[in-house]
């Protein structure tokens, strides 16, 4: 017999919150039927209104909090939850760190992998940490606006203070927004694939204070670009690079392939752990510089390198981990898919006077197979993949190369656990606690370092 859904849309219910999902939503159950509720915390009792009912679950909205959690802090701004900029803003920072530790434990438990997870390394000030902004530009009520999308939609909520970004970046976005308004540049209209300016990307070096502004346009032509660039340069003296990125596709991907330098250099420079890095518009660069230094220091320490060691750094980006390790190891090989990032990595090796590194552009899974066939015998392999984790074939190549240690930097505990399981089935084991480092305070993202060691056969 078909099971009855025990809740009705638009009805209010009083519920106890028993859990927090990996997306930061409170979980309540009515007759074992789960309801996911934004801005509700475990141990709380809330009156919630059911806003969407599906076959196996529903979504609810808090109407009133009847019993508050001791871990609750007041919302800084509702818009940060509405847009997903800071979905954990209502949770005390200590509790956020515990939540992230718990998320890793849950993913490993699901796969029956017995590992220990250390408390998350947090920040002293878990706000205004991001060195990069990617801000959509849209028409809202007849005016060009910058802000962020309401969750699960492309409706723009205008925002000026983004709370988790470097305030100098927030100021720059407003300056650029006002110039786009002044010169009547048409914002992108997604529905009809019309208009010019899609997004503003801003990056600011944490130590160097060098700023890059990228104007992401649908069209090759950016009207009044000369005037806009001249005014940006006058009003924002930190700007060292203004780039136009053309993305004509109807796509959710932020950037297109083509970058045109409109003023200054094609890169800005920043420092990490005393090393200098040139960063291009399209290259990946960790967004939380304070925590990145802790993360890389930890990864290098856990790699436990000696001066005779050969290292492979897979998914190396602009060579940040590679160069940190090249200071200690004999030789470091890096592989990265984005040719522009590889060019940055090569330049960065030069700037820092490191000659014991070699960078290759290509898919990590292909290049690792090639290195393995060529007989390369690394002592340590580090991997720092995107959220989807490692390809099975890459894990096979790693195992065949038999490094004594694999250092896995992960931004997704679910794919990390999946990959660790494959490694453990092939003779590698996690003998020390996994270490989460909070790269993304106020959000549900979880970064961690795991060490896999080859078991003696
Ligand atoms: C999480 S980032 C890490 C970058 C670098 N380790 C760092 O911390 O700055 C992942 C990198 O993997 C690259 N990437 C994505 N898919 C790849 C693939 N199949 N092979 C090689 N690199 C890839 C991305 O361009 C990005 O630079």
TrEMBL record:
Q: Return the CDD domains for the record.
A: AdoMet_MTases
* Example GO BP: rRNA base methylation
Specify the TRAM domain's residue ranges. 6-64
Identify which residues the record assigns to the active site. Answer: 411
Enzyme Commission code: 2.1.1.189
A GO molecular function for this record? rRNA (uridine-C5-)-methyltransferase activity
Task: Extract the InterPro entries matched here.
Answer: MeTrfase_TrmA_AS, MeTrfase_TrmA_CS, NA-bd_OB-fold, SAM-dependent_MTases_sf, TRAM_dom, U5_MeTrfase_fam
The family database entries (Gene3D superfamilies) matched by this protein are listed as:
2.40.50.1070, Nucleic acid-binding proteins, Vaccinia Virus protein VP39
The similarity annotation says:
Belongs to the class I-like SAM-binding methyltransferase superfamily. RNA M5U methyltransferase family.
Which NCBIfam families does this one have? Answer: rumA (TIGR00479)
Q: What is this protein called?
A: 23S rRNA (Uracil-C(5))-methyltransferase RlmCD
- Keyword Secreted attributed: no
Query: Which residues are recorded as binding S-adenosyl-L-methionine?
Result: 286, 315, 336, 384
Keyword check for Methyltransferase: yes
């Amino acid at each position: 017999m078909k099971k009855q859904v025990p809740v009705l849309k638009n009805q209010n219910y009083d519920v106890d919150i028993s859990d927090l999902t990996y997306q930061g939503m409170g979980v309540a159950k009515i007759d074992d039927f789960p309801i996911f509720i934004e801005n509700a915390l475990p141990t709380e009792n809330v009156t919630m209104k059911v806003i969407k009912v599906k076959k196996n679950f529903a979504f609810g909205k808090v109407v009133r909090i009847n019993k508050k959690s001791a871990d609750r802090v007041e919302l800084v701004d509702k818009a940060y939850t509405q847009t997903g900029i800071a979905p954990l803003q209502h949770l005390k920072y200590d509790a956020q760190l515990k939540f992230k530790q718990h998320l890793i434990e849950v993913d490993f438990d699901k796969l029956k992998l017995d590992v220990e997870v250390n408390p998350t390394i947090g920040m002293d000030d878990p706000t205004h940490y991001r060195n990069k902004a990617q801000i959509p530009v849209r028409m809202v009520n007849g005016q060009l606006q910058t802000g962020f999308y309401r969750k699960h939609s492309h409706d723009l909520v205008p925002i000026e203070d983004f709370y988790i970004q470097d305030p100098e970046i927030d100021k720059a976005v407003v300056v650029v927004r006002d110039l786009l308004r002044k010169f009547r540049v048409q914002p992108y209209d997604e529905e009809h694939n019309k208009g010019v300016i899609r997004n503003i990307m801003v990056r600011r070096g944490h130590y160097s204070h060098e700023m890059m502004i990228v104007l992401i346009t649908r069209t090759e032509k950016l009207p009044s670009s000369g005037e806009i660039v001249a005014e940006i340069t006058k009003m924002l003296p930190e700007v060292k690079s203004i780039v136009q990125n053309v993305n004509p596709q109807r796509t959710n991907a932020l950037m297109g392939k083509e970058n045109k330098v409109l003023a200054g250099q094609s890169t800005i420079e920043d420092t990490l752990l005393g090393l200098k890095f040139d960063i291009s518009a399209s290259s990946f660069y960790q967004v939380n510089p304070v925590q990145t230094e802790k993360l890389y220091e930890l990864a290098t320490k856990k790699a436990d390198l000696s001066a005779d060691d050969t290292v492979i750094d897979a998914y190396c980006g602009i060579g940040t981990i590679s160069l940190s390790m090249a200071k200690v190891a004999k030789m470091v090989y890096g592989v990265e898919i984005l040719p522009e990032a590889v060019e940055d990595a090569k330049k960065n090796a030069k700037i820092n006077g490191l000659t014991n590194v070699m960078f290759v552009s290509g898919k990590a899974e292909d290049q690792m197979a090639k290195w393995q066939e060529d007989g390369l015998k690394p002592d340590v392999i580090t991997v720092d993949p995107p959220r989807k984790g490692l390809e099975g074939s890459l894990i096979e190549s790693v195992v065949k190369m038999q490094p004594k240690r694999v250092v896995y930097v992960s931004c997704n505990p679910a794919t990390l656990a999946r990959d660790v399981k494959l490694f453990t089935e092939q003779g590698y084991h996690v003998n020390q606690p996994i270490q989460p480092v909070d790269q993304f305070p106020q959000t549900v993202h979880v970064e961690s370092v795991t060490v896999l060691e080859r078991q003696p056969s």
